[in-house]
């Protein structure tokens, strides 16, 4: 939306945030802030997740049964709510990953057609 | 499972803590770290709301906040308990009356019958509009014509009502209302037995065994649902009959039927008169539409057949009688007598609801003006108009819900009362019970009222800065509010006026009917039904019985005279009108012979009933069957046919087409007119004959010197002495017969008066409330007036005048509304406009009530403490 054109960070594609959250949690339970930081770190600071999008996404995933949440203590000894993948969440991650690679492939073919692929 | 808002807050707070800590760990100073983390987070409320929305829908939130508002509303209403109770009771009256009447209406007009395929079950009716008969019934030859020619009807069932004396089931002789039916009747009606079997085609004809079926109501109410009755042999009229079954619970038609028997039980039905006389009409006709036939098609076909039958037998259908035929479903036939009265009741209930709502609106409006400053404070603090409206809606919902609950509770006993009342018009009403539809109706009405009430008060507008004036607790009344209050009060008066005029009409009619001079001696005559004896004896035995009874009862102490006849005025209907020829009277060209009622009576009949003989003589014991044939005519016959007063000693005779012996009979006397069909006399032409020469008596009239009812035991004993099998029923004075006959009118008048009374009461409260309010709001003005030398008396009449103005405006509005309503209704119903007395009476009552209602506020206005009033702002 109202982002200055000079900002190098990218907007997330619709629907990809859920997948990124699931992927991030593949390596173990994490709290909301940690998930946001991880996405940012792993995208080389290109993706920044707004808190206002991250938390609704987390709760949406909990509501669908893909995540479970429980209160715990962070490494810096602070009270935090941790999210972890459920079995259904793992299955969903695999589905999303497949869908994503198909999408990338399809879009890639349109954007960079192979020179003589037809005949 | 769902996180509540506090947990969401906790999560966001912990996010903030962690983010801040991270920055501090990176070396930022705590203060700026926190600020940066906050900035990163954005508006906390927005984050929380978007997470909240994941779990809770908008509707859920709206409902929750409404419930919250309702809790607050309930608390604030509990502080103004008097107002809350008034509102709830008023609404409960409105909702309860509507719910109760609606469930009766639903039962009578809308609920399907138990009969199989009831929409294919029709009732065929012969009418004779020319002589004012809606149901002329059918004769057997007429039914035969219809049966043989109709194709749209697959089967006909016929039913004729007879009174049988029943001996059996372990009781004494009693008269039962029985139906004599053909074998297809029950199949046509689509009814099943509850016990045993019903009458079928095997029971038709003169050689079948006599059998009877009991209606469910008779079986349960009189025989206590004894299952052993099936198979019992009872004495029914002249012979024995076997009870073969009990009918399933169903709407009986005609309503009073207790026993249904096959044709062979009634010798009359097998006789030549019944079988061959086209004018002998005593049978009702039902039919089943043939597959593929429609009601309209059947109606057209039957009407055509009927018209050709009428053309083929001109001697049986007097042109002036305009005999016709109509067809409707049985459901319509059952409901139609009750339709008008129920729709009227429904309208009255709706009017009560309007009155209740406008009264409540007034109360709410008054309350909202008192709390205008509270609303203004909330508006100033940023509450939107929608939020304020929601607060008001929540409060009115609490009130209306309470009103609805109380109203539905009230409806339960009301249904029973109204059902008993409406059952006089349609038997179906007796089955009326409160059902869940009433709950929906109550909820709907309450919701309608709540929304209406929430939109009644004005919200503080942003433009009015003085709403926040320091006069907290003081009442400020704006012209707009005052106008609304008055409009509601006027609505109430107008509606009350309509109801009161309606009630007044009914009371006036009842009054006319119950005080009209009937021409009979009402108080001293005991009428007793003495139906033809169960022994089946007729002719000479009956004659001997009545002669013996007259002699023995006449000798009892306290008896001033005994006579017999066939008709107890108003209770028994015997409206065969016969055509007569009169010596010396020539009908004009194209005119028929005059029709007269025929009444077989005994000697001394006129003396016992107090009807004066104007000329000539009474019948005597010498006017026997072997003596000269004689007759007595009523005064109007004499005057119409013999204007010169020479009726006595002329001759009259039955028209030869009537089927009765047409020998000449000499007129020996003229008696004053009496009308035994209508309690308010209409001109009647009656010919009296000595029953020894024609007809059979079945009613005994005893003139008592003292209290007629004290004679009942002696009379009963005497009659039983003469014949042990004799049924003796319903000993009543004529005065009490009239009272019974007028019961529906009395109930109508009572119900509408009750409605009018409720309306009046609510309207008085309404007017008093408006004036009290306006007086309270003008305290300061009154104080100033008193201070500059105004007389308290003038203030009193000022307020009283206001009350009268409101009442007058309401009456005018009501009259106008009534005229419009009457005009609209006259397109559907036969509308009678009220007389001067009900209108004047209702208007006077309302003005008086308005004055009464304004007395207290008026006195308060004149007693305003000048100093207090001037200091109050």
Structural overview:
The complex is a heterodimer of chains A (119) and B (873). Chain A contains four helices and three strands. With 119 residues, chain A is α+β, with helices and mostly antiparallel strands. Chain A has a single domain, classed as Orthogonal Bundle (Arc Repressor Mutant, subunit A), CATH 1.10.10.10. Chain A has a three-stranded antiparallel beta sheet with strand order 1-3-2. In chain A, a hairpin with a 5-residue loop joins strand 2 (67-73) and strand 3 (79-85). Helix content of chain B is 51%, strand content 15%. Chain B is built from 26 helices and 21 strands. The longest helix of chain B has 41 residues, at 330-370. Mean pLDDT of chain B is 80; it is low at 462-474. Classes of the chains: A alpha+beta (119), B alpha+beta (873). Chain A binds chain B through residues 31-34, 37, 50-52, 55-56, 59-60, 63, 74, 76, 78-81, and chain B through 3, 10-12, 14-15, 17-19, 21-22, 25, 40-42, 46-47, 50-51, 53-55.
Number of helices of chain A: 4
Rounded radius of gyration of chain B (Å): 38 Å
Largest sheet descriptor of chain A: 3 strands, antiparallel
Could you give the order of the helices and strands of chain A?
Answer: HEHHEEH
